[in-house]
Design goal:
Pathway: Protein modification; peptidyl-diphthamide biosynthesis
Shape: globular
CATH superfamily: YVTN repeat-like/Quinoprotein amine dehydrogenase
GO cellular component, one term: cytoplasm
Distance between the termini: 6 Å
Keywords: Hydrolase, Repeat, WD repeat
Number of domains: 1
Number of helices: 0
InterPro entries: Diphthine_MTase (IPR052415), WD40/YVTN_repeat-like_dom_sf (IPR015943), WD40_repeat_dom_sf (IPR036322), WD40_rpt (IPR001680)
CATH topology: Methylamine Dehydrogenase, Chain H
Mean pLDDT: 94
Order of helices and strands: EEEEEEEEEEEEEEEEEEEEEEEEEEEEE
Number of strands: 29
Oligomer: single chain
Catalytic activity: diphthine methyl ester-[translation elongation factor 2] + H2O = diphthine-[translation elongation factor 2] + methanol + H(+)
CATH architecture: 7 Propeller
CATH class: Mainly Beta
Length: 347
């Protein structure tokens, strides 16, 4: 069935844009955030460490009225440069990780404004600055995992009296770009690093998580991980080597299938209404939409070429849509561009 993508809105984020997250919770599913990361020395590396590097950012909150097709920027929060954002799985709390090595949470007020609620500094076991690179919540929302630029992974408890770091360990030799809980087994945590390793940890051990596996299938750094709640034993990965791969987590020596999308794959986002359909941020190419087929192969549904710079952030809108329309937002770096588009598939 042919699919087409139409751009509905473009927005100049002023600062370089790298993260988009749409709120999954009612009655806030018309809201999404775009995070920015401004490098004043114009270095492409997100973890560049020179004396000239200044990292500042903003969190932009948007409201999208899909009925009237109106997009409004309702809030702008000045912050340290944003690397990743996630909404809590159980409530409308936004968590961000930034270039200062902090985890910062915000609650949505009744006026639909973000209000900062908590801040936690990720432990740094060595000298020099440390950036917090990614965050993921367990399905129950009682804990989060944070990866950092020193190759570390931190487990954060979501306690009533505030966030607490309960464990940190060195998982990778270089940047730990990504971490993700298994959505069907919350005792399992996946991590991916610039050392090309995909690691699997059992986090039930209180003293030190047990390393179950080091996978060396990828040809370059592992940058994105996707575990699907609807697909037990399956894990999708993205890498700087331009490929997405599917693994059966019961036997991960080799991948089940792989597809080259062109450009390093920075983010993977499943369509909430059709989890087998995945929105991929292919950094130096475009945003691509692929489907995971019944035979465990990937097929390309559509490509979105609206952006002229590094394609970093993307996410789908949650909730009911009109007809077969599927909305998503995407953003790119040096052209500081955020787009809102709609995917339509002919029946």
């Amino acid at each position: 069935m042919p699919s087409t993508i139409t751009t509905l809105h473009t927005y100049d984020t002023v600062y370089s844009a790298d993260s988009v997250e749409w709120c999954p919770h009612n009655p806030y599913q018309q809201l999404f955030v775009c995070g920015t990361y401004q490098l004043d020395n114009k270095d492409e590396s997100l973890t560049s460490n020179t004396s000239q590097t200044v990292r500042k950012g903003r969190i932009l909150l948007f409201n999208f009225d899909s009925v009237e097709n109106v997009l409004t920027n309702t809030q702008c929060i000045e912050t340290s440069a944003i690397l990743d954002q996630k909404w809590h799985p159980s409530n409308a709390m936004l968590s961000t990780v930034n270039a200062s090595g902090d985890v910062v949470t915000f609650n949505l007020s009744s006026e639909e404004k973000l209000i900062q609620s908590d801040t936690l500094k990720v432990p740094n076991d060595s000298e020099g600055e440390q950036l917090a690179l990614s965050i993921d919540w367990s399905l129950g929302g009682d804990k989060a995992a944070v990866s950092d630029s020193k190759g570390g992974i931190s487990l954060i408890s979501n306690a009533p009296d505030g966030m607490q770091c309960v464990n940190r360990w060195n998982a990778h030799s270089f940047e730990a770009w990504i971490c993700a809980f298994d959505k069907t087994d919350q005792n399992v945590l996946y991590t991916g690093g610039d050392d090309i390793l995909l690691c699997v940890y059992d986090i039930r051990c209180a003293d030190a998580p047990m390393l179950r596996l080091k996978n060396k299938t990828h040809g370059a750094g592992v940058t994105s991980l996707l575990s699907l709640q609807t697909k037990e034993h399956l894990l999708v990965t993205g890498s700087y080597d331009d490929c997405i791969r599917l693994f059966d987590t019961r036997s991960m020596r080799f991948c089940v299938s792989e597809t080259n999308l062109g450009g390093g794959v920075w983010r993977l986002k499943p369509n909430p209404s059709q989890p087998d359909q995945i929105l991929c941020a292919c950094m130096y190419h475009n945003f691509s939409i692929v489907s995971l087929n019944s035979d465990q192969s990937f097929s390309l549904d559509a490509e979105y070429d609206e952006h002229g710079s590094i394609c970093y952030g993307c996410d789908w809108k949650y909730g009911l849509t009109e007809g077969n329309a599927k909305y998503f937002a995407s953003c790119s770096f040096y052209d500081h561009k955020m787009c809102l588009a709609v995917l339509k598939t002919e029946k």
